[in-house]
Amino acid sequence: MLRLIIYVLCIGTCGEAVYSGQPVTCADIANDERWSIGWRNLCVAHGILACHSAPVLGVDSLPLGSLMLCFDQARQPTDWEYQLANFGAQVASIVFERNRAELVHRARSEQLQTLFDEAPLGIYLVDEDFRISQVNPIALSVFGNIPDLIGRDFDEVMHVLWPQEYAKEIVEWFPILLG
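and the corresponding structure tokens:
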């Protein structure tokens, strides 16, 4: 029987795999000194007699944790089991890094939103279809009482706000300024 466990704790082969950044095999947990007596007895009592741990590495090649395959017989893993452990560790790495990237993205988005909302000058965003997509509180006062401002065409909004000739000039220059 094969059991798959992801460990982040530094015990036995998992801890060694994290510390060394290399895969570690224990073919006989009951007689391996890398395991403390407590952990060794717990594993044996639950039928875990051998294991193989692969480090889960981040994009910076530093270990984030380890993946452990557990076996109910004292033995070496098969080639397939080595490949399974490596594949599982790579998948876990992708998941950890994706979660880390999402957290960084969320934090940056919150910072940008705060900057946008609290800027001491008016800011408005126009989307790729040339529609107003977002307006900060200071800019909102400039747009006055234009109903349903968000989603409205920039050209239309400028013509509501300004005299015809001036609005036309703003609309013509806006794409040039965006480059």
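(Above: one complete record from the training split.) Residues 119-178 form one domain.
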